[in-house]
């Protein structure tokens, strides 16, 4: 195939995503009477998460995945882990070089390490198989395998995001809030009696517990040190108490991710694909429960348009102004779409040369594209959860997803040429 033909095959899925995302963004504005309002997006996202996505995952796994396939896919969990590890290191280097506001530090590391390994691969990778002249074989076989690879990628990405990324943003938000608290302590407010209110602890009912001390100009250095020692000891006590709480929260989110509908659908899809007698119950023209598989496929067909519309609607939040500097945005884009994919390409090609990967070139294409995906949309959910950097996160996602249209097309074209 010529370069122009490869560019056409690679660009069509990205253009489809752009068109549907633009429609979703337009539907979230007043011109469409806010049809995709924040409340509606939350409800639709629940439907996609609970019903559409599990149906798509189970139907694709049960139909195309066998026990031999599971054994040959062992490198994908390793590859996903490497995307988070290497991306996290690159994000940490950016933080050291740029020295951004503490509110943005965790977002930079999360944006560099946590790619969209679920929604976009499910949209883009199977769409490659729909283009005429694709290098990955017959349309039906290619699309079935692509859905299986993308579904497995989504399940793995969710586990890493709700453990590694969650902890990264949590620790960053706690440090930012501690900094805010220390600034309040260092700049106390006087009450009507001329005393100083020094916040010590914040209770569960969100009411500050404060102690009143004379203004620092009227007390000696030793007395002032005693006051601040008490404040510091209370902060350290809270940190020790919150460590176990944070560990419990991480384990709880991991368990929730493992028990989420897409993860459960992945498990049962693997089970029905690996056990032949279970597979024969729903797969095949003579299967007694073929209607179940057909119903799940019908429900799964609603996944791609819904998640793409939601993507466009959610990105409209990034049009708000924020304190993210252009240099920070450019650095994240270069790291996410150029440096990390080049490293990933080297890793995948090395693994292929050592015979660690299946022969299928579509599997290698999927592995490299995992490094080139824009930041995960769940980062925005976590920023809202910890109430730190909401607007900054929206701006980062808006610009990185805008840049991904060019980056994904370029990488997809290059990989099609390399693997064809």
Automatic annotation (TrEMBL):
Summary of the function given for this chain in its UniProt record: Involved in cellular auxin homeostasis by regulating auxin metabolism. Regulates intracellular auxin accumulation at the endoplasmic reticulum and thus auxin availability for nuclear auxin signaling.
Spans through the membrane: 12-32, 44-62, 74-95, 107-128, 148-166, 254-278, 298-315, 327-348, 396-419
GO CC, any one term: endoplasmic reticulum membrane
UniProt cross-references to InterPro entries, sorted A to Z: Mem_transp_PIN-like, PILS1/3/4/5/7
Coiled coil residues, start to end: none
Entry keyword annotation includes Endoplasmic reticulum: yes
Keyword tags: Auxin signaling pathway, Endoplasmic reticulum, Membrane, Transmembrane, Transmembrane helix, Transport
Cellular localisation: Endoplasmic reticulum membrane
Origin superkingdom: Eukaryota
Biological process annotations from GO: auxin-activated signaling pathway; endoplasmic reticulum to cytosol auxin transport
Pfam families: Mem_trans
Name the UniProt record assigns to this protein: Protein PIN-LIKES 7-like
Protein family (similarity comment): Belongs to the auxin efflux carrier (TC 2.A.69.2) family.
Main location: endoplasmic reticulum
Membrane topology of the entry: Multi-pass membrane protein
